[in-house]
Amino acid sequence: MDIIISAAILQSALIIAAFAQIMLKRAANVKRSSPIEDYLNPTVIAAYFLMFITTFITIYSYKVLPLSLGAVLGSMSYIYVTVLSVRLLNEKITRRKIFALALIIVGVIVFSLS
Q1: Which of 23, 36, 40, 57 could bridge across to 47 with cysteines, CB 3.0–4.6 Å?
Q2: What's this model's pTM, rounded to 2 decimal places?
């Protein structure tokens, strides 16, 4: 398998994991009658299932990707979660978050140039 295809597979897994994190956050904001219902509801179960699947997709992509590249590409998940949080949860993005995301992007660019 080609490195570019593996990188695309990894990015797909990261985007799916970001959606799963948004699902967990939404589920956490719902008041339930018992602590067991916090974990045994369809949204939480689906989100954990997606996380479980993305773990195997990530492992599969690491078969071809160098570990250093995988770690750098993995940092893109912070960007995906932030964008989805702003879009789907109406969270506010602060200057501090923008600065942190810019550092991540610069790091990915610097790594890709070397």
Answers
A1: 23
A2: 0.84
